[in-house]
Amino acid sequence: MKILTWNCNGALRRKFEHLLDYDADINVVQECENPAETTHKAYNQFAQNYLWIGDSKNKGIGVFAKDYIKLERLNWSNNFKDHQVKHFLPCSINGEFDLLAVWNHSNKSPTFGYIGQLWKYLQINKSHLNECLIIGDFNSNKIWDKWDRWWNHSNVVEELKEIGIESLYHKSFKEEQGHETQPTFYLQRNLQKSYHIDYIFGSQEFVKNIKTIEIGPVSYWLKISDHLPIICEF
Predict the structure, then answer these.
(1) Helix (H) or strand (E) run with residue 102 in it
(2) Cα(132)–Cα(97) distance, rounded to whole angstroms?
(3) Which UniProt key words apply to this protein (predicted)?
């Protein structure tokens, strides 16, 4: 099985064809429009088998799968005390494993933006995370840790490791968090402002069965988005 994640930077209807050469079984795409509210025929054909959530029809997160894959949305909670976190899309894949699609959002939170949203989500849904993949745009890296917060990037990585879930990129390339040699994001598409903020985390069954993992070439993808896709094959 081949799985891809990519923040398309909007207008996926004009960009999805760039994904087709990878022939992924599952594409997890952030900042894409709702296929149910577009009249773009080719995009609708691409999105024959999908799940999607978002705040507006123009920007959300989608899971797009080949026809033979059964996608089932899971009813995990977004409510942390009096705060609703976003954007998280949990789904079952063929009833065999769970996939949590992530697009970490600031969510207008002065303290729990981005990685704080995922930290909160883990506190209420950690019991669901058994055989699973957590995949998407985390908008986060260890280099932005703040010493006086317990929901830093490093804390989230450690909490996941405690339940057997690890970053497949870091495992495969034997790199430490915060010391990545391959960026996934270029702020304002500037080659001098590169960061690693997109991830595929997996439980131990996935860690053991990684066949390949790669990041799309910057020379190609930076013309299309400010993010590069990550492709993992098991």
Answers:
(1) strand 97-103
(2) 6
(3) Exonuclease, Hydrolase, Nuclease
| 40 cis-preceded (ω within 30 degrees of 0) | no
Output the CA–CA distances (angstroms, integers) from residue 16 to 13, 138, 218, in the order listed: 6, 21, 17
Q: pLDDT digit string (tens) for 147-176?
A: 888 899 999 999 999 999 999 999 999 999
Would you give the end-to-end CA distance of the chain in angstroms? 5
CB-CB contact of 10 with 31 (8 Å): yes
Domains in the chain: ranges and CATH: 2-233 (3.60.10.10)
The predicted model scores a pTM of: 0.96
Q: Count CA atoms closer than 13 A to 52's CA, side-chain side.
A: 25
